[in-house]
Amino acid sequence: MKISRKEFLRTSSLALALPALTRAPGFAKPIKNVGLQLYTLRNELGKDLEGTLKKVADIGYKEVETFGYGNGKFFGKTPAEFRSLLSGLGLNSPSGHYMPNNLKQDWAQTVEHGAAIGQKFMMCAFLFPQDRKTIDDYKKLCDTLNQAGETCRKAGIQFGYHNHDFEFQTLDGQVPYDVMLKGTDPKLVKMELDLYWAVRAGQDPVQLFKQNPGRFPLVHLKDMAKTEKKEFAEVGTGSIDFQRILDARKVAGIEHYFVEQDAVVSGTPLEAIAVSYKNVGKLSV
């Protein structure tokens, strides 16, 4: 069958245009390795660690972010045992949450254990009220975070800080989060932006990214219910425009995305993370 010159040119033009079309917004790819911050399933993990992790993997999650490290163990398992458990389920843990006391006690060993389970990021998860009474407390904290970051750097790990909403509340005439961003070395201390808490505090994540490019390798995908109380909600069911935020991922420097839901209003946490996983799959990067 002969093809006319006009038809040949039209077909060739479509072929040449296809690569460009696949890079267009409408052809963007879904997030490959959706992660879960395990704090969401804290009660379930306490009752059945292996069974709960299997359910996480069965839903489709590939990455998990740990919490609750203590006495040299993760959920009662040695680093080697825990890594083996995750690997057997097709999971890995690129990041973990650690408390301020971890930073001050045997931090070098803690970093070794984080590295042993394959973590490339270690985050300071929270600040207790007694540690954040004044802006000077935050300035002193910056020194602690920089020191922790240097220890992580030597082990090939990136250290960082995970926010709530209190860091954005003016204290002594200054905004603590701004103090932390300016008072820490950008190479030693990155930020894991919890999108729910940032939005709840009146912040625009995209503006934070633009003001601090490359500072946010991790984010928590956590939605806010469309109610007066603004409860935690399954991703995609609330008021946060995640796609707009993810469209700014390159300026932010985002590498990993972790679903988290501190509390579930109806249903079970496992049902909630299944809904979130499905809806995260509708987002594109």
Describe this entry's structure for a reader.
This protein is an alpha/beta fold. It has a single domain, classed as TIM Barrel (Alpha-Beta Barrel), CATH 3.20.20.150. 43% of the residues lie in helices and 14% in strands. It has 13 helices and ten strands. It has helices spanning 5-22, 42-47, 49-59, 79-88, 100-104, 107-116, 135-154, 176-183, 195-200, 205-211, 242-246, 249-252, 269-280; strands at 35-37, 63-66, 92-98, 121-124, 158-162, 189-194, 218-221, 223-224, 232-233, 256-259. Strands 1-2-3-4-5-6-7-10 form an eight-stranded parallel barrel. Helix 8 links the parallel strand 5 (158-162) and strand 6 (189-194). Helix 7 (135-154) packs parallel to helix 8. The longest helix is centred in the middle third of the chain and has 20 residues, at 135-154. The protein is globular, with a radius of gyration of 21 Å. The protein starts with a helix and ends in a 5-residue tail after the last helix.
